[in-house]
Amino acid sequence: MRNCIFCKIIAGEIPSVKLYEDDLVYAFMDIAPITFGHTLVIPKEHHTSVATIPEATAGRMFLVGSRLGVAMKRGLAADGFNLHLSDGTVAGQVVMHAHLHVVPRWTDDGFHWNWRQLKYENEAAREELKKKMLEYFRLTKDASEAEEPEA
Ligand code: 5GP
Ligand code: ZN
Fold this sequence. Notes:
Blueprint: H1 5-11, E1 18-21, E2 25-29, E3 39-43, H2 55-75, E4 80-84, E5 100-105, H3 123-134, H4 143-146
Antiparallel strand pairs: 1-2, 2-3, 3-5, 4-5
The chain binds guanosine-5'-monophosphate and zinc ion (ZN).
């Protein structure tokens, strides 16, 4: 896709520090890492949202991300790793070519997810949300089913 920074990286038009490439995915080091070693795994085909990525590619992204996480533990003596994906601007997605973050973690790395824990007011409130989500949940391989609803 024209004007997509990650498509340009895949095409070699913008330099990147590549860790891995196959027929479906490309992995390279993040230019502004959360921790040192922070890597991105992206589909070679342009998709804005992870929701439209075909199953084989989505599966490969997760597999490569997990294996890179293991490589970070063994090679960088990381104590663990985060796999993170922001889908949509409100979720923090800045580059609109879907990407999986692989972030090596050390006990003393000084980084904390800004995680909070709410409580459902009651069971009925929780059930209502469950119903609303399941109304639209489809395990389909047809990407058109996964596209964003019309505004
Ligand atoms: P997002 O916030 O969209 O989930 O993550 C985008 C990521 O892409 C950020 O972590 C940012 O540092 C990284 N990034 C943006 N532009 C480039 C680039 O040109 N090269 C590399 N290697 N990473 C980039
Ligand atoms: Zn792209």
